[in-house]
Specification:
Blueprint (H helix, E strand, L loop, with lengths): L12 H8 L18 H9 L9 H4 L4 H19 L13 H21 L2 H20 L16 H5 L2 H24 L5 H26 L2 H14 L1
Helix pairs in contact: 4-5, 4-6, 4-10, 5-6, 8-9, 9-10
Length: 234
Amino acid sequence: MSSFPAHHKSPSNEEIEVEKNGGLNLSKAQTSSAMTISPELFEKLYLSPKTPHSGDALNRFANPTAMGFVGFVISTFTFATILMGWGGASGLSGVAGIFFFTGPVLLILGTIFEWIMGNFFAMMVQSLFAVFWLSFGLLQLPTLNLAAAYSPTGNAVEGAASKEYNSVVGLYLLVWGFALFTFFIFTLKTNCVFAGIFLFVTIGAWLLSGAYFKVGTGDYAMAERLQKTGGALL
C-alpha cells in the first residue's frame, strides 16, 4: 500500500509571532485606559531630553545651574527691594550694575555651560533672564536719555512721564509676562517650587506693566501701589 506524504500547512507570520509570545497575539492587543507617566519621566523626556554628548564634559565641569541661580537671586532681590522702597530707596540708576554684570554675566556663563552639558530647559530659563536684565537695564541708564525722544523739547524727565513712553515699556513687560507664563506651564508637571517661582514672577511682571500704564495716565498713587506689589511678588 503506497503512502502519500502528508501535506502540512506552513505557519503564517502571525502564528509564529503568537507562538513566540506564549500564545498571546500582542499585535491585536489594545489597552483599555490611557497611559500616564510620572512627573519625573515627563521632565526627563520633554524638558531635559537625553542628548548625545561628545567627550567627557559631564565629568569635567561642575553643575552650572547654581551659578546662574545666584546671579538671578542677587539681581532680582535687589531689584525687588528697591521697587518696594525699602530704606527709602528710589530709582534704579544707582544699581545699574545688576542689569549688566551681576545678573547677565553669571546667567550667560550658566547658559553656555548648560548648553555644553545638554540641559535644555535650564539653558532656556537662564538665557531668558539674561537678555531681560540687559534690555531692561538700558532703560535705567540716565546717560542714554532714551525717554528724551518722547518729549517735544527733548527733556528726558518729561519724556519719562509721557503716556507714549510708559505705554511702550508697559507693553514690553506685558509680553515678558506671557513669556514667563509659558515657562510656568512647562513646570506644572515637574516641580512645584519652580512652578511657584514662575507664577509669582509672571504676576509681578504684569503688575509692573500696569504700573507703567498708570504713570502714563497720571495716576501715580495707583502706579506706586502696583510697583510695590509687583516688587513683593518678585
